[in-house]
Amino acid sequence: MKEVTMKIVILDTGCANLASVAYAIRRLGHEPIISLDANVVRSADKLFLPGVGTATAAMAQLEQRQLIPLINSLSQPVLGICLGMQLLADISAEGDNVPLLKLINAPVEKMVTKGLPLPHMGWNQVQAQEGHPLFRHIADNARFYFVHSYALPVSEYTIAQTEYGNMFSSAVAKDNFFGVQFHPERSGAAGAQLLKNFLEM
């Protein structure tokens, strides 16, 4: 019997980490498609929404590429990575209160770090919600790689949190939308396991 191949699509947001996300997925034995074609995106089994840079530029790219209504209409599992997670929220304090995708009812705020430098860059512990499938087979307080100055506060949508001056959401979930503030594609074995978990959801 022929094995059914999972269709994995990385939304072509025009950001710089598309290639590294694709490489991390290939290392798990899958061949992702990078696309902004609505038919390709809608037919995906799993979707990735990567993002680096500013919320203003990222939302402008999504609007220019006509991806906003498409993303809002998706029913399959979607994983936002770094800025991609922030884009799922309501509004970002970055720039002039940038409106976002409004899929998760939470704001993106500038981090209050109590004297620690911004951006928050490097490895930090992630305290995941016990039993959440996204963190299956990942050790408690595993370390992941972060690069950011803005974050979602801890809320009802938080499935993992991290401390950097204050606690912030390092992973969120609502319905079929998931987001991680860290870069799983740069986070070694723990990051690879998280990507594997998402693909198996």
Automatic annotation (TrEMBL):
Example of a GO MF term: glutaminase activity
Active site (record annotation): 82 (nucleophile), 183, 185
Domain spans labelled Glutamine amidotransferase: 10-199
Keywords: Amino-acid biosynthesis, Cytoplasm, Glutamine amidotransferase, Histidine biosynthesis, Hydrolase, Lyase, Transferase
Catalytic reaction list: L-glutamine + H2O = L-glutamate + NH4(+); 5-[(5-phospho-1-deoxy-D-ribulos-1-ylimino)methylamino]-1-(5-phospho-beta-D-ribosyl)imidazole-4-carboxamide + L-glutamine = D-erythro-1-(imidazol-4-yl)glycerol 3-phosphate + 5-amino-1-(5-phospho-beta-D-ribosyl)imidazole-4-carboxamide + L-glutamate + H(+)
GO biological process: L-histidine biosynthetic process
EC number assigned by the record: 4.3.2.10, 3.5.1.2
InterPro entries assigned: Class_I_gatase-like (IPR029062), GATASE (IPR017926), Imidazole-glycPsynth_HisH (IPR010139)
Pathway named in the protein's UniProt entry: Amino-acid biosynthesis; L-histidine biosynthesis; L-histidine from 5-phospho-alpha-D-ribose 1-diphosphate: step 5/9
Cellular localization per UniProt: Cytoplasm
One GO cellular component term: cytoplasm
Oligomeric form and interacting partners: Heterodimer of HisH and HisF.
Function: IGPS catalyzes the conversion of PRFAR and glutamine to IGP, AICAR and glutamate. The HisH subunit catalyzes the hydrolysis of glutamine to glutamate and ammonia as part of the synthesis of IGP and AICAR. The resulting ammonia molecule is channeled to the active site of HisF.
Record-given protein name: Imidazole glycerol phosphate synthase subunit HisH
